[in-house]
Amino acid sequence: MIIDGKKLSIEFIKEVKEEVETLKKQGKSIGLSVILIGEYPPSLIYVKNKEKKAKEAGIISEVIKYPNEVSENEVLNKIEELNQNSKVSGILVQLPLPGHIKKEKIINAINPLKDVDGFHPINVGNLASGTNAITPCTPLGCLYLIKSVENNLEGKHAVILGRSNLNGKPMAQLLLKENCTVTITHSKTKDLKSECKKADILVAAVGVKELVKGDWIKKGAIVIDVGINKSNGKIIGDVEFDSSKVMAKAITPVPGGVGPMTIACLLKNTLECFKKTSL
Ligand code: GUN
Do 238 and 161 meet the contact criterion of CB atoms below 8 Å apart? Predict the structure, then answer.
C-alpha cells in the first residue's frame, strides 16, 4: 500500500478551512507570518507552498523577506513586533538561517504560544514531558500518516533514522507517547541495516539519497520517508522506493507523502496557536 499524503493533507486542510470559516463568521481572523531570509532555493519553494496552502484554508498569510545580509537585531525586532501584533496567530522563521544569525536566539525570541513550528524550548520541553505542546509539523504529519495505516501503535518497535531537533527527536517523543518502543539511529550507529530490520515502523529523516534499501526493511513494516533529495533533476527520498515497497505493508512516496502533510500540520498548528492566544 502506498500512503497518499496528498489526499490525507487535502482532508486535513478542508477541516482547518471549515474551522477558520466558522471563526471568521464570529469576526475573528487567523494570521500566519513567515520570515524568509536569503534566497536558499528549497526555502523559496517551501515558503511559497506554505503561503499558498494557508490562503486556501482562509488563513491570512504574509511572507516577510529579508536579504541574506540582514542583521540579527533587525530580525529580532520584527519578531517582537509580530509577538505584540494580535492579528498574528503564528510566526515561522524559515530555516536554515545565514551563518551570522544565531538560530537559537531567533527561535527563543518567538512567543511560545505563536511558535507554529514547535521549536521554542518551552514547546520542546512540553513535548518531552507529554503535556499540551505545539508539535513540530513534519513529525506530527508523519504520525498522522502512520496512524492512517494503523491506529493502535502500542508495543510496536519504531526505528528513526536521524536525531535532528526538527524531525528525529520530536518524532521519537510522539512515538513514545503512542507506547512504541523507540530506537533513534544516527550517523555513528553501528550496523544501521540490522537496526532498521527490527522496525515495525521505520521513519527515515537523514537527507541521504536512497540510503535505506529493500533488504533493510522487515516484511510488513510501515515506512515513512521524510527525505527530500535532488537527483538528476528529480526529487527522491531517503528510502529506495521500488525495492522497499515490496517489503513494506505501507510506504510514503517522495514527493506526495510527508511533504503535503507537513504543510497541513502547519495550518493545524496555526489554528491551535490562534486558540491559545485569542479564545
Ligand atoms: N526548514 C526545513 N523544514 C522546516 C520547518 O519545518 N520549519 C522551518 N521553520 N524551517 C524549515
Answer: yes
